[in-house]
Amino acid sequence: MNPTRSRFSPQPARHVKERVVHSLLFLSAMSAIAITLAVVSILVLESMSFFREVSLREFLTDTQWTPLFADPRYGVMPLVGATLVVTSIGLLVAVPLGTLAALYLGEFAPSRVREFFKPTLEMLSSVPSVVYGYFALLLVTPLLQQIIPGLPGFNMLSAGLVIGVSIVPFVSSMSEDAMRAVPMDIREGSYAMGATRLQTARYVVFPAALSGIVAAYILAMSVALGQTMIVAIAAGQQANLTLDPTQPAATLTAYIAQVAIGDVAHGTIAYQSIFAVGLVLLLMTLVLNILGHFMRRRYRESY
Amino acid sequence: MQSKRVFLALSTAALLGGVAALTPAWAQTATVRVDGSSTVFPISEAVAEEFQRANRNVRVTVGVSGTGGGFARFCRGEIDVTGASRPARATEIEACRAAGIRFIELPVAFDALTVAVHRDNTWARQLTVAQLRTIWEPGATGRITNWRQVDPAFPDLALTLFGPGSASGTFDYFTEAIMGRSGQSRTDYMATEDDNVTVMGIARDRGALGYFGMAYYEANRERLRSVSIVPATGGAAVAPTMENVIAGIYQPLARPLFIYVSERSLQRPEVRQFAEFFLTQGARLSREVGFVPLPAEAYTVAAGHLRDNRLGTRFATGEPVVGVRIQDVMRREPRL
């Protein structure tokens, strides 16, 4: 006779419950992958209809992007150029500011100051991007117009600067976490050798946290790439092949927003162009993520 | 602990009760859906505001999808009224016919399509139609980038252009009036369906030029300067004012503005009341927002058409719209 098992023992029910929970959690994890696959397949499918009409060569080499006009041209380079310019300006602002902020908060600030500044910095990321866009258009641009005479009302420079401001929290928060993960022993060893706080931060902590900091930069770059509203509002929506940040231009994302919000009919080639542009954006972000993955692996330090 | 649970239960009940009380009110509200031209939008918005104030149980939503976008939604049955800054095109009439949607065309105001420049622009006080064509024709893309190329007497200043995009009725009308064929335009300008963005762009750039409906100029007089147009037939330059449109001399850029109401939607009392309100208040409100009101008889005739269900458009395929005057619009009869 088995004293622990009877017909009404909870054992089988518990086993079933475990299985159910296990499956639910597995489905949740799979759903993320499924959604990603769905998005990619839709982009690829619709882009295929686009590329049946427009040759890949014209798409990659033509210098004008005017799909909504009577004589359409489909060269994606103006959009890609504008995206890269705006992202670079954003990173030029966010990387130094964010890294130095993280360094100060992590290594130098007394704990009372840190408790105040850290949440305040993260509040920057809670401002909606459309508010940032109008901030760029109505505050930053007039200010810049006084420094740079002749600056057009819509330009890539103010959009880039404000994008930089909006991604500073990503850089600073992740960099600070990376720096905090560096064990105290290494720091103390450095202090014991007579190094100042600045020397410790520069030569010991920063290199040790490098993989996490690089991950922060890559994340910031991905966010800057995907920024839509700030560029749509502040940089104008005129596709323009130029590397000059004082000119107005349209990025990949701003073009997608312009067409998606407008009233282009389904199935037309102008409609399919947004999927082709979306695919380009996806590939750029994918390349960036793979790059980030390899760089993190290379600089990783295990403690 | 006990009071905390009670409080939680009470607040949840209050929240649910509030939602339950409001939902029937939301569900019952009669809605009139208006969309269409960004040029007609100021009038539609003003009419909608006053109508909702007078009829508290009716909601009027006004969208700005552009003339083309408005017609697309209208011929799919998604909206009741669409504003248009040009008459319906052949393709749009066909689309409505295919979908079984019949409409009544109501003229509501006249517009002097205004070409505007920066307030400090003192050299381009008047432009000829030929000069406008030089600036805006498709061949000017990348080529005409300086004011001096338009007229050697103008200063050596970069020319930045703003205007509506290719889905806009204003774009269709301007290109037809200046270039001779709708849709013919250079492509390297800041194209946006939102005329406020065009106003903002021109106001910030000394070498800027753009075009939009006159209501947007009237609302921004301090920031812009309007350009007088020398008509194609020659003569003196004419400013985009109400008097000149009524006299019929602001050519070729004076144009009628319409609303189209679907016959099916008119069976709902709130839509019919809204359309009648539009016509009775249209003169006053179009003048208020900055357009040229039609003469009083025009609104009476239009109200008669609404009452008698006179379906169709005055501008069947192929008939030119450019150069049509207020009297011509009043004289024409709508046909299916």
UniProtKB/TrEMBL annotation, chain A:
Domain of life: Bacteria
Subcellular localization: Cell inner membrane; Cell membrane
One record GO biological process: phosphate ion transport
CDD domains documented for this protein: TM_PBP2
SUPFAM superfamilies: MetI-like (SSF161098)
InterPro entries assigned to the protein according to its UniProt record, in alphabetical order: MetI-like, MetI-like_sf, Phosphate_PstC
Keywords per UniProt: Cell inner membrane, Cell membrane, Membrane, Phosphate transport, Transmembrane, Transmembrane helix, Transport
Membrane topology (UniProt): Multi-pass membrane protein
GO cellular component terms attached to this protein's record: plasma membrane
Xref: Pfam families: BPD_transp_1
GO molecular function annotation: phosphate transmembrane transporter activity
PROSITE patterns xrefs: ABC_TM1 (PS50928)
TM regions (residue ranges): 20-45, 79-106, 127-148, 154-171, 203-235, 269-291
UniProt domain ABC transmembrane type-1: residue ranges: 80-292
Functional note: Part of the binding-protein-dependent transport system for phosphate; probably responsible for the translocation of the substrate across the membrane.
Family label: Belongs to the binding-protein-dependent transport system permease family. CysTW subfamily.
Protein name: Phosphate transport system permease protein
Source organism per UniProt: Serpentinimonas raichei
